[in-house]
Sequence to fold (559 residues):
Amino acid sequence: MNKIFALTGVVIKELYRRKDFYVLFVLTAVLTLAAGAVNFFHDEKIVRYVKDICLLLIWISSLVIAIVTTARQIPAEREARTIFPLLAKPVSRGQVIAGKFLGCWLATGMALVVFYFFFAVITGSKEQSWPVLTYFQAAWMQWLLLGIVIALVLLGSIYFAAPSSTSTISFVVVISILLVGSHLHVIALQQPEPMQTVLTFVYYIMPHLEWFYLSDFVVYDFGHVPLLKIIAATLYAAVWTGILLLLAWLGFRRKNLTT
Amino acid sequence: MKISPFTVLLTLLALAFTLALGLAQDAAGWSQRGKSGNVLGMMFGDGRKLLANQFFTMADVYFHSGYYPSIFDNKAGQEDEPKAIVAATRGHEGHDHETGDKKCEKCEECGSFLGQPKDWIDAFGRNFKIAQHTHLEHGKEREMLPWLRLAADLDPQKIDTYTVGAFYLRNHLKHVNQAEAFLREGLRNNPDSCEILFELGRLYRESSHDLDRARNVWELGVRKFLARSPAEQKENRLVFEELVVNLGHLEDEAGNYGQAINWFHAAQKVSPNPAVLQKQIDEIQKKLAALLPVGPAKLY
Fold:
């Protein structure tokens, strides 16, 4: 376990040494503050559009951080040939995968804490209310989603040739699931065979990332999701993360690292 | 032959300058974008109208607190026009929606697009999205305003943006001055709009209690309507009916019973329910009969 934590520490250090997070955070902060400074009909109490814009930027930023950071982990180790001394420590390939995952997941978690703290300060100062439980649920569910995404990207980085292709494909997959995931069954029913069966099959076997998007509850002050449902979603995320990490490990175990 | 790179650079710069001088006048007519009055118009050109529609829809999405059909949802529940916020401005609120955590039980009327869960994934997924039909109230309607402001900036010819925005500013937020300024802005951009004149008249009558200004504005609205082509008049009969019926009520309130009856007669010609208007005419005629020694029928 110590070996996994050592790898995790390296990944976290990498995140705060790189400029990605700082650039995205400053961009989010500047755009949110600029949006919040606009006066509509001299009404100071209007706040939901600021929440909407800020959460959208947080989602984009966290996805960019998670995908871009994860996509380069294993290819960078291979390219720099540091993977060989790493595996000679000895560290098993499974531990490398686990360490890289945990590092990326915790690093994005820390980034999320900073983002949501900023969000809470900005919106709280405008509307004078602090629905902490709703914010916590939204951040927690987003972090769970990022866990699935990081595992998916790690899997992709084993099979795809370069970090750029892994990142692009991961973005397309994640955004597609978020946008049409819940509607895929309806779309499938409108298609002729065999497309109907194919889409229905995809609908049932894909990870339903759209469940983890709770921004609407925050933006529209719609209370919170029942705790049992959050626990069920957490289990679902854990299962999917496990499946994807297992697949990544199976691929990495047989991977020829010299080519 | 050896040519200095500086000579080539100078020649190219001279050529670019000469071409720019020659083409400047013609190029000015190639696009209307640069002539746009505002920055958004310059940036987006005519494409801004699409964005304006999207922002107007966003206002309706906010009005429903995110409970809104997507392009994939049941067509029966999908509204081509964001009707709820527009209908509310015309006094047709449909039905009262419960807010907070209570579900509206009459949502078949406004099209419950979600229907029954299609499978266990859909059923479980509904825990994580807003699945209750509610409308903003108690001053929270203000949250729609940024989108209406943006829609007006992007498409100044979209009449509904001004009437809807002014309605909520005036009725729900009590910002009468802001509502009037917004309507005036709409009128500057659409000087022939009967709809904006109608809403402006309502503002004067209901909020400012200035019957004379309301009358003037509504009468101007009627004149603008009558100046339209017959096809346009047929399409927009509703606004004419609203104008003349409200003028009728205004004159009735002001004690000008004869004029009130005239307006209700005009409304009967376009109304889908002239019998209701006839009842109002009869009531006014009774009031008139009480005032005059001779019967009102002989007067008109």
